[in-house]
Known about the structure:
The protein has helices spanning 13-16, 25-40, 57-62, 67-91, 113-121, 139-149, 183-188, 196-204, 219-224, and strands at 5-10, 44-49, 96-100, 109-110, 125-129, 154-159, 164-165, 177-178, 180-182, 209-213, 231-235. By secondary structure, the chain is an alpha/beta fold. It has one domain (5-235): Acetylglutamate kinase-like (Carbamate kinase). The radius of gyration is 17 Å and the shape is globular.
Amino acid sequence: MKYRRILLKISGETLKGSHEHGYDAAAVRKVVSTIAQARENGVQVALVVGAGNIWRGVMGASGGMDPVTADYMGMLGTVMNALCLSDFFRAANIPCEVFSAVSMEPIAKRFNRNAAVSALEEGKVVVFGGGTGSPFFTTDTTAALRALEMNCEAVLKATKVDGIYTADPFKDPDAKRFSTLTYDEALNRKLAVMDAAAFSLCRDRNLPIIVLNFFEDGSLMRVLNGDFSAGTLVSSGK
């Protein structure tokens, strides 16, 4: 494996499958089985999950809610998704530990860097919920922050397309896919890799970002082996 410890960012929508909201057991099992394959090959996996299948803070704010309240509701949604994932991991006999950025005992342990690193080293899948613990920060930023804290070798962002394109490939049939990009190229082209705070964290500390089609069979393993035919690598290019 090219990467031995990764932070995988998945959206809440990944867990809802064909449902309009909530959870689809088949979709959650697909996430678990895909990560299990990486783990069986010696890769340590940390997860950050969004809450789009339950709640989007930006939608609440646009509907007239206080944006801070709306963001806190989103944080709670990510903890719910983390608990869902951990239950399915354990059902598959995969040890898992959930950490929350906000106090949620006895539901989840409060985030502690040393404890989380130890859990990874013990072979557990580690799931981070509660965002950064503060409003106005997305789960993209949470993913970059936790990846750096965990000394991960890359941030992998799970999407429905096989990497980063010049335009939305679902809307523009002429969109071209990049196999690799530098941070500066991604910025200059104004490509939607991650939000600005997350991207800055990764760029400033030279943490690779890989955008991949998580739903394509074998794509995660190919990327972990350094084959970016199933995704796009964003790095310093050095």
